[in-house]
Every structure is written in structure tokens, then in C-alpha cells.
């Protein structure tokens, strides 16, 4: 609450400026009796913090609901495209329009707590907020940015004067990039790569910093720079990265039937320890999308690859080779289906410190991941040693590869799973028999049609070769016992004679 001395001081300052100040205008809008700050929309620090936390919790809840709804819609669209052959999946333009509408709808979530109550003020605020991004996003980003900035400042203090120079260069680069938002993503990538190279050369030539300390400093510079630039350069709207993500995700879903045996994967998931390694590898490759720094994304790829090598080593009881690693990595990517895979690969390629991509195990594993994605995009029947007919049937979902026999299951497997596998095998056999019967019936029908056409043609050829001519007689033949008038030379007919006994 205001004290008498503080009120007098405020009145004196206002009178010197020639401004009359109403004491009620200085109070917090919530009516708690403390000073209100115009920068906080007229709230005191305590009330503003409470309102901010409420708004932030509500914003987080709405973001979760939006993500779940978009996931459900995507799954329903995929299911409908699989069930109906003629159905069209959601195009990228419709998906982008839906996402834009959702963003526009929720941009007024936080600021509405601090706007005026009048209708005119509310309409004006809504118009301004529709053009500006959500304030909660800026506040949430500022929390992480502040944390990274503090860690970066603490780190460069150990470098003394070179650290001060690094900090100035980073601030200058961020200020420059803030005015270059209209540049293409390739031009921004070139600016970032040039900045990395200039800072490294500056530390080595001007400040004579040892190479190991230069590498460590560049890692921190990358972390500081890319944390602040992440929301502007990761999967930007000016590129087709999101369209590629959807294409790769759809492709991996269509290849869900691929088995380790088709890829010649030397990993046995029946071994509990190997199964755990496979799960950890899938978790690491999926976790890559949650990181913001390119170096952290590379670290997830490296951890995934090491789990793969351990799984191969346990299965074969010998060290794994490169020929064993790449097929297993392809299988892990197919089984995990990492989110925004192409966007993450492009982000690492564009903004990672080039020294990490050119040398070391991080660069090797990242190159193998790029090869695995390229193999998945071009995978065909020949790659899996399958016939084109079987590959097309597997891709369209008409049938699936033969499942594991029930007798080969371990004793602790549920009976329902065994019965399900038996039923699937029986259905697969019935399907094959039905397809064979249909094909043979079609063949028999074709043979009958060909036989009928052949007989008809032969008859026509014979008739054409030997035509049938019917000649009419000039006179009619007389009966045997009739009077032969025309020819007198013939003897008369015999007459019956009676003899007396």
C-alpha cells in the first residue's frame, strides 16, 4: 500500500512536470493496493505474475489439445486412405491452411487477460493481436533463452578477453540476423557457417587459443546462437521441409510389413538384452526432434548408433561391421518412424558446426542416417529380394509376409498370441488358395473361348473351300407301279395270275 511519504514524492514529481496525477490511476488494476506498472498492463508485479502463470497454464493446455487433435486427424486420414483405394489423403496445402487457422484462433489467449473491458478497446486489441505472434510463445522462449544466455556468459568468463570478444561477435551476429529474416534459408545457412569460421579463425590467429579450447568454445557458441535462432530457422514456412516430412512419414508407414530377415539385419530381438538395446535406439532417434541445438541432435544419433552396435555385438558375439550397421539402422528408422525426420536432417546440415560434420563419429553416424533415409525413399522389390507382384501386394495391404510359426514361440508367450498367429496363417493360406482358384478359373474360361473360336474358324474354312451346291431336277420321277406312258419300250407291269388246283 502507498505510504504518505511516497504519495508526496509522486505528487512533487508530477507537479514539476506539470502533470496532474490521480492516485487511483497508480493503483493495481486488481485492487490489491500496490503500485501498478504500465509495462505490465497496469498490474503490480505480484498480480501480473499470477495472471501470467494462469495464462501460461491455459496456453500449454490448449497447445496439448491442439497437438492431440492434429494427431488424431492425421491418423484418421491415413486410415481412410488405406481402406478406400479411391480416397484422397489430405494435401499439404489443406494441412497448412488448417494449422494457420488454428494458430490465428489461439493468438488472443494470453493478452485478453490484460486488455480493456470496453468493446472498442477489445476489438482494437484483437486486430493487433491477430497480426502479432502469441505473447506466451515469446515468454516461454525467453525463459529458455535466459538460461542458455547465463550458461554462455558463465562459460566465456573463463576465457577472459577472448571470451569478451566472442560475446561481442555473437551479439553482433544475432542483431544482424534479426534484420535478415527475409533471406532464404540457404543464405541464412551461409551466414551462420561464415560466422562459425570467422570466430574459429579469430580465436586461433588473434588470441592464440589452443585447438581443444577452440572446439569447446565453438560448441558453446553454436548452442547459444542456435537456441536463439531455432524458431526462425527450423522448418521455416518458406521451404518444403514439412511436405518432405509428411512424405517420408507416409512412406515409412506403408513399409510397416518389412521384416528384419528381408533387410538381412543381424539382430535377434528374442534375446532380452538385445531387445532392450533396440528399444533404447528407437527412443534416442525419436528424442532427436526434442533438441534445439544441432550438436544435441547429433548426440542423439550417436547414442542410437552405439546401441545398435551393442545389439549386433551381443547377437553375433563379435564386433559389428559397417555392413551390419547400415541395415540395422534402416530397420530402426522403419520401426521408430521419427517425427520431422527430413526437417531435422536439413537443420543439422544447414546450421551445425562444419567441424563436427566433416570429422569424428558424429559425422559418420549422421552420414549413415542420411543414407538410410535415401534407401527408404527408393526402396523397391529388388532391394528386399522380392518379386514385384509380392512387393505390390505388401505395399497395398492385400497381404502380409508370413508370420512366425506358433511352435517357435517361447513358452512364456500368451496363448492368445499363438492362436492369433495360427489364424493369420490359416487366413493367408485360404487367401492364396482363393487367388489360385480364381486365376485357374479365368484361365479355363479363356481356353474355352479360344477353343470355340478355333472350331468356328475351321468350319468356316471348310465351307469356304468346299461350298455346298444343290441342283434342282428337270422332271419328277414316276412311281414304280404307275403307267409308264412315256416309254413304250419297257414291258408292262406284271399282273397277278390265279392257277386252278
Automatic annotation (TrEMBL):
Residues 79-90 have a biased composition (Polar residues). Residues 22-56 form the A20-type domain. It comes from Pheucticus melanocephalus (Black-headed grosbeak). Residues 75-94, 482-501 are annotated as: Disordered. The keyword Cytoplasm applies. The gene is Rabgef1. InterPro entries: DUF5601, VPS9, Vps9-like, VPS9_dom_sf, Znf_A20. One of its GO terms (cellular component) is endocytic vesicle. GO terms for biological process: endocytosis; protein transport. Keywords: Acetylation, Cytoplasm, Endocytosis, Endosome, Metal-binding, Phosphoprotein, Protein transport, Transport, Ubl conjugation, Ubl conjugation pathway, Zinc, Zinc-finger. This is Rab5 GDP/GTP exchange factor. Residues 242-385 form the VPS9 domain. Signal peptide: none annotated.
Amino acid at each position: 500500500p502507498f505510504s504518505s511519504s511516497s504519495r508526496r514524492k509522486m505528487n512533487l514529481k508530477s507537479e514539476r512536470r506539470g502533470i496532474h496525477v490521480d492516485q487511483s490511476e497508480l493503483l493495481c488494476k486488481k485492487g490489491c493496493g500496490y503500485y501498478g506498472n504500465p509495462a505490465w498492463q497496469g498490474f503490480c508485479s505480484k498480480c501480473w505474475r499470477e495472471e501470467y502463470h494462469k495464462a501460461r497454464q491455459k496456453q500449454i493446455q490448449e497447445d496439448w489439445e491442439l497437438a492431440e487433435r492434429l494427431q488424431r486427424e492425421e491418423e484418421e486420414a491415413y486410415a481412410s486412405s488405406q481402406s478406400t483405394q479411391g480416397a484422397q489423403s489430405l494435401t499439404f496445402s489443406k494441412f497448412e491452411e488448417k494449422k494457420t487457422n488454428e494458430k490465428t484462433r489461439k493468438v488472443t489467449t494470453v493478452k485478453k487477460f490484460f486488455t480493456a473491458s470496453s468493446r472498442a478497446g477489445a476489438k482494437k486489441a484483437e486486430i493487433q493481436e491477430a497480426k502479432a505472434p502469441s505473447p506466451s510463445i515469446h515468454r516461454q522462449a525467453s525463459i529458455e533463452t535466459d538460461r542458455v544466455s547465463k550458461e554462455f556468459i558463465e562459460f566465456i568468463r573463463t576465457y577472459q578477453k577472448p571470451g569478451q570478444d566472442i560475446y561481442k561477435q555473437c551479439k553482433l551476429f544475432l542483431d544482424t540476423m534479426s534484420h535478415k529474416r527475409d533471406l532464404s534459408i540457404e543464405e541464412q545457412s551461409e551466414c551462420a557457417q561464415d560466422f562459425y569460421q570467422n570466430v574459429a579463425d579469430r580465436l586461433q590467429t588473434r588470441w592464440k587459443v589452443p585447438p581443444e579450447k577452440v572446439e569447446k568454445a565453438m560448441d558453446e557458441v553454436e548452442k547459444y546462437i542456435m537456441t536463439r535462432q531455432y524458431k526462425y530457422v527450423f522448418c521455416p514456412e518458406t521451404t518444403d521441409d514439412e511436405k518432405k516430412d509428411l512424405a517420408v512419414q507416409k512412406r515409412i508407414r506403408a513399409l510397416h510389413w518389412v521384416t528384419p530377415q528381408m533387410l538381412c539385419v543381424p539382430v535377434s530381438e528374442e534375446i532380452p538384452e538385445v531387445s532392450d538395446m533396440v528399444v533404447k535406439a528407437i527412443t534416442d532417434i525419436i528424442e532427436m526432434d526434442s533438441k534445439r541445438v544441432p550438436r544435441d541432435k547429433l548426440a542423439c544419433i550417436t547414442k542410437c548408433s552405439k546401441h545398435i552396435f551393442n545389439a549386433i555385438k551381443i547377437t553375433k558375439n563379435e564386433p559389428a561391421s559397417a555392413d551390419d550397421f547400415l541395415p540395422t539402422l534402416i530397420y530402426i528408422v522403419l520401426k521408430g518412424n521419427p517425427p520431422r525426420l527430413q526437417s531435422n536432417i536439413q537443420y543439422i546440415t544447414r546450421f551445425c558446426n562444419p567441424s563436427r560434420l566433416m570429422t569424428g563419429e558424429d559425422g559418420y553416424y549422421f552420414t549413415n542416417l542420411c543414407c538410410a533415409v535415401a534407401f527408404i525413399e527408393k526402396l523397391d522389390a529388388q532391394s528386399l529380394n522380392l518379386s514385384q507382384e509380392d512387393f505390390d501386394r505388401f505395399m497395398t495391404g492385400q497381404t502380409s509376409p508370413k508370420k512366425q510359426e506358433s511352435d517357435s514361440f517361447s513358452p512364456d508367450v500368451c496363448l492368445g498370441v499363438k492362436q492369433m498367429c495360427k489364424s493369420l496363417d490359416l487366413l493367408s493360406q485360404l487367401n492364396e488358395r482363393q487367388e489360385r482358384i480364381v486365376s485357374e478359373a479365368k484361365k479355363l474360361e479363356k481356353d474355352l473361348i479360344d477353343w470355340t473360336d478355333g472350331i468356328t474358324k475351321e468350319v468356316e474354312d471348310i465351307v469356304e473351300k468346299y461350298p455346298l451346291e444343290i441342283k434342282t431336277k428337270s422332271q419328277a420321277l414316276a412311281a414304280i407301279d404307275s403307267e409308264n406312258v412315256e416309254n413304250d419300250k419297257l414291258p408292262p407291269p406284271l399282273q397277278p395270275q390265279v392257277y386252278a388246283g
